[in-house]
Design brief:
The complex is a heterodimer.
Chain A (H helix, E strand, L loop, with lengths): L4 E5 L8 E7 L1 E6 L12 H4 L1 H4 L6 E2 L2 E2 L2 H14 L4 E4 L6 H14 L1 E5 L10 H5 L4 H6 L2 E4 L3 H4 L3 H10 L3 E5 L9 E3 L13 E6 L6 H14 L2 E5 L5 H7 L5 E3 H10 L4 E5 L8 H5 L3 E6 L4 H5 L2 E4 L10 E2 L5 E2 L7 H10 L5 H12 L31 E5 L3 H5 L7 E4 L1 H7 L6 E6 L2 E9 L6 E4 L10 E7 L1
Chain B lengths: L5 E6 L2 H6 L5 H11 L5 E9 L2 E7 L2 H5 L12 H5 L6 E5 L1 H12 L8 E6 L7 H12 L6 E7 L2 E6 L4 E5 H6 L6 H5 L10 E4 L12 E5 L2 H12 L3 E4 L3 H25 L6 H9 L7 H5 L10 H4 L11 H9 L9 H5 L6 H15 L21
Parallel strand pairs in B: 2-4, 4-5, 5-9
Antiparallel strand pairs in B: 1-10, 1-11, 2-3, 6-7, 7-8, 9-10
Helix pairs in contact in B: 2-9
The chains are: A alpha/beta, B alpha/beta.
Bound molecules: flavin-adenine dinucleotide and iron/sulfur cluster.
Iron/sulfur cluster binds next to α1 of chain A.
GO molecular function, one term (chain A): NADH dehydrogenase activity
InterPro entries (chain A): Mopterin_OxRdtase_4Fe-4S_dom, Prok_molybdopt-oxidoreductase
Protein name (chain A): NADH:ubiquinone oxidoreductase chain G-like protein
Chain lengths: 474, 383
């Protein structure tokens, strides 16, 4: 912290974009042009951080209280429901807090990181956890995208354009044409892909990833001798996955199942708003405990909110997609203290920090150096990805706004001109979307999208995972 | 002391004189303004390293004194920093900072009467990330090993911690895509006579070279600022000799000539402008950073460029940019900030200047150089 300015990392995704936050009554975002991941540049989400960082208040059953009281009450409820408590940390906090949380989970319940690492062979865990340096992306000769870079990980776009300037060919495999791609293929045409040892596949890995699809991409890369890198949506996804690699952990799908079965009654979310991802399951909980630095949809539903400093005021370590260690910017350890109160112990920052460095394999946090990570070979996993067979699909394009539940200016679906013609949609009008009897009317934007697909960058409330079969009409 | 006078000056505090870019005069003038309550606050850069400094608004004289030194790889943007804060403030400012502040003044977000601007001569600034890469690729040195840097006789010289100097001509660096930011190459405001004072090392010769700053007093406010620093015992000044004055004018002329050449090189006339603009803008992700950072824009959240633009529209070219191209044609100062912050590397300043160059030439209007109202302000509905 310098004066009222924090040099911090954007919490929108795992890209690791550096910025300044100036506290000046209101929050101001300023551009930290020396930041190695993004040269100071920020996407729509980064520019929206003053809105994201709405301070949270500690609450117990609707009554405002202190952090300490909220943590003590959380401790009581966790002990009284021991055995049916789930601890969820998607990777939105520092390594040090995540590690303390993991210890807490080990003694009181089970840890959920959201991703389905357990369903994937152990020899691919490292590849899924740590991506390759952005400089390697810029140097690639052939890049194959299984993401929408513009919507999902916007700061990757300039790296792709730089690669292109140096002669790289870019192939996009997506439901929509990408302006930067030299070749646009649709997901169903993946078999037409020509990969070589010079190819680099860029995909993403997150709690809603289809495990079979992840396996098939890993196999695709392995069989062609191509490189593969996975981008991730949470500011410390990489840190969380490395730290939890050997821990027993469960996925989001398992969490929903456990809540539905009634084996989980208390859920403790650390800096993780999963309300939009599992609203029905959340409603079934006896205790929803949320520890967070900012207000969001889930804090309004929680029985207990343990509110502490936001990420930009925290002390600790974040690991970005490349494996680069960065500091979130502050000196606050309120989160760790709360976790200590709940665990009935005192978590010492310095010793946690030492453990983190050891587990990550670094001796110091130096944002200008990407540590050399092991890149173990793996056996091509056997995958049984099957293409969705519905006639019309609604595909969710997960982006930082969706993951954090922050509203964006995108209340429309994208669809093709052919669909407009087939349905005789009116310019400036809406399209009706029907799923299992739920009917929605949405504005639409005409884009070069696959003819039987609707794309949404916002949750519209009828989704069944990343892809939902729907019917459409005028 | 009067408007139009020129001096050579330096800090009376030895350590500040040493740490200063050229004699620590600017730092001392700022500190004296705060100390003697000419202003309530001062903007300074808090140095992290040679490639990073955080702009802060401070009322602490010691903090001001600690900020001495020129950072060529910190393309700061002070106009937006002080806008809408109702400050009585003194600040150092590159030519583009000065222009931005004056334009904000015209739009009533900064009170110019309460703003003391110490202009810095500026041959150009560099983007820190580009500089780091340049050090590794061109100079073969680690950025962490850099101890200091200077520009001499057309060469950019880095000194490393082992005391060695590493020099490459700026021409060679810029040919390879390094060196100054593109907008700095064609910027013609080399001596900011639009500020209250214009300070720089050009014209400081002989024994004083590197140990004093050449100051030109451009306004009564400037005279007050400098006299205050002299009276408070912060700076010492003397008259420059004719040789120095002539040298300064000569370098200024040469630099302006070079800028004009760059302008011709960058803005080659083109056919099919529509396709060019469409292609350059096709990667835009609607982040709005170019508007946020723009030092002449004073519109809040509700503005024409955002109101006419809907993300659900499928126009071939975004209405947001089209409105901005028009809206800024009279007011763009070519500072390069929009290009700096664009997340998809659109060369925005170049696009804005494609509109602004002919319009500003036609209207004989140079935004931020004086208090003339922007020509578009004069367009009334019944005209
Ligand atoms: C980017 C840049 C380019 C320059 N180019 C030339 C040139 O070509 N010819 C010439 O005669 N003079 C140039 N100068 C001015 C010169 O380097 C000295 O700053 C000037 O002579 C004043 O010296 P000083 O010792 O009195 O300043 P100091 O006492 O060292 O004070 C310098 C002040 O400038 C501020 N500052 C430092 N870096 C920046 C920055 N990047 N942007 C805004 N404020 C900053 C500091 O916070 C401090 O307040 C340049 C300065 C900069 C910052
Ligand atoms: S959301 Fe991701 S891409 Fe966007 S600014 Fe934040 S870290 Fe960068």
């Amino acid at each position: 912290m310098i004066g009222n300015v924090y040099s911090t990392i954007c919490p929108g995704c795992n890209f690791g974009c550096g910025l300044y936050i100036r506290e000046n009554g209101e929050l101001e975002v300023d551009f930290r042009k020396s930041s190695p991941a993004n040269a100071g540049k920020l996407c729509r989400f980064g520019m929206s951080l003053p809105r994201f960082y709405t301070p949270a208040r500690s609450i117990v059953d609707g009554r405002e209280t202190t952090l300490d009281e909220a943590a003590k009450e959380a401790a009581k409820r966790i002990s009284s429901t021991k055995g049916s408590v789930a601890f969820l940390s998607l990777g939105n906090t520092t390594c040090e807090e995540h590690l303390a949380f993991q210890k807490l989970a080990e003694s009181f319940g089970s840890l959920y990181t959201g991703v389905e690492l357990g369903a994937l062979p152990g020899d691919v865990h490292q590849t899924l956890s740590v991506g390759i340096p952005y400089s390697e992306i810029e140097a690639a000769k052939h890049i194959v995208l299984f993401i929408d870079p513009y919507e999902q990980y916007p700061l990757i776009v300039r790296r792709l354009l730089l690669a292109k300037k140096k002669g790289a060919k870019i192939t996009s495999i997506w439901w929509k044409d990408m302006p930067l791609a030299d070749e646009n293929l649709r997901p169903a045409d993946t078999s037409k892909l020509q990969l070589t040892g010079d190819s680099l596949i860029i995909a993403d890995f997150h709690p809603l990833s289809d495990t079979e699809q992840v396996k098939s991409l890993l196999a695709l890369a392995k069989n062609a001798g191509a490189k593969i890198t996975f981008l991730k949506p949470f500011v410390n996804s990489t840190g969380a996955y490395i730290l939890s690699m050997d821990a027993k952990q469960k996925s989001l799908a398992q969490l929903i199942e456990d809540i539905n079965k009634g084996t989980i009654k208390t859920l403790f979310c650390l800096e993780s708003d999963i309300l939009e991802l599992m609203p029905e399951a959340i409603a079934k909980l006896t205790n929803l405990i949320v520890q967070t630095g900012q207000e969001s949809a889930i804090t309004k539903k929680a029985h207990i909110v343990i509110a502490h400093e936001p990420l930009y005021k925290k002390r600790g370590t974040l690991i970005n997609n490349e494996g680069r260690a960065q500091a979130p910017g502050g000196a606050g350890t309120g989160g760790l203290e709360a976790l200590g109160t709940i665990a009935g112990t005192k978590f010492d920052f310095d010793s946690l920090h030492e453990s983190v460095k050891k587990m990550i394999g670094i001796t110091a946090v130096d944002e200008f150096t990407v540590p050399a990570y092991e890149r173990p070979t793996y056996a091509a996993p056997r995958a049984t990805a099957k293409p969705p067979d519905a006639k019309i699909l609604l595909a969710s394009v997960y982006n930082p706004f969706m993951w954090s539940g922050l509203a964006d200016d995108n209340d429309f679906v994208e669809l093709s001109l052919n669909m407009v013609r087939a349905l005789k949609l009116l310019k400036g009008g809406t399209v009706k979307i029907n799923y299992n009897g739920s009917l929605l009317e949405k504005k639409f934007k005409v884009a070069p999208v696959q003819d039987n697909v609707l794309l949404t960058g916002k949750r519209i409330g009828i989704e069944k995972g990343a892809i939902t079969p729907v019917e459409v009409s005028r | 002391m009067q408007k139009g006078e020129m001096f050579l000056g330096w800090s009376t505090k030895e350590d500040i004189r040493k740490r200063g870019g050229s004699g620590g005069l600017v730092t001392s003038v700022l500190a004296a303004a705060l100390d003697k309550k000419l202003v309530d606050s001062v903007v300074v850069l808090k140095k992290i390293n040679d490639f990073e400094a955080v702009p802060v608004i401070t009322s602490d004289v010691n903090e001001v004194l600690n900020s001495a030194g020129s950072l060529h790889s910190v393309p700061s943007n002070f106009a937006k920093l002080i806008a809408n804060k109702n400050l009585k403030v003194a600040l150092p400012a590159k030519g583009c900072d000065v222009r931005g502040i004056i334009e904000q003044g015209k739009r009533n977000t900064i009170k110019l009467d309460n703003t003391f601007i110490i202009g810095l001569n500026c041959g150009g600034s560099m983007h820190p990330t580009v500089t780091r890469e340049m050090l590794e690729v061109m100079y073969k040195i680690r950025p962490e090993d850099v101890h200091g840097e200077e520009i001499e006789k057309g060469k950019l010289i880095f000194e490393t911690k082992d005391g060695k100097e590493h020099a490459i001509t700026i021409d060679e660096l810029e040919e390879k895509g390094y060196g100054r930011r593109e907008s700095c190459r064609y910027c013609t405001i080399k001596i900011p006579n639009n500020a209250d004072l214009a300070c720089g090392n050009w014209g400081v010769t002989g024994e004083l070279a590197g140990k004093a700053t050449f100051v030109e007093v451009n306004s009564e406010k400037g005279a007050e600022l400098l006299q205050n620093a002299v009276d408070a015992g912060y700076v010492q000044i003397q008259k420059p000799d004719e040789k120095g004055i002539a040298a300064r004018a000569r370098i200024k002329g040469a630099m302006e000539g070079l800028s004009r050449k760059w302008k011709e090189k960058v803005f080659i006339p083109m056919d099919n402008r529509l396709e060019y603009f469409r292609k350059e803008l096709e990667n835009c992700i609607d982040c709005g950073a170019c508007k946020t950072v723009c030092p002449t824009c004073s519109c809040g959240d509700v503005s024409k460029c955002t109101e006419f633009h809907y993300r659900g529209d499928a126009y071939k070219m975004s209405m947001y940019h089209l409105v901005r191209f028009l809206h800024l044609a009279d007011s763009c100062i070519g500072c390069g900030q929009c290009t700096d912050v664009c997340p998809v590397d659109i060369p925005l300043t170049r696009l804005y200047r494609r509109f602004a160059n002919p319009v500003q030439e036609e209207l004989k209007y140079e935004p931020g150089m004086d208090l003339r109202r922007p020509p578009y302000f004069e367009v009334k509905l019944n005209d």
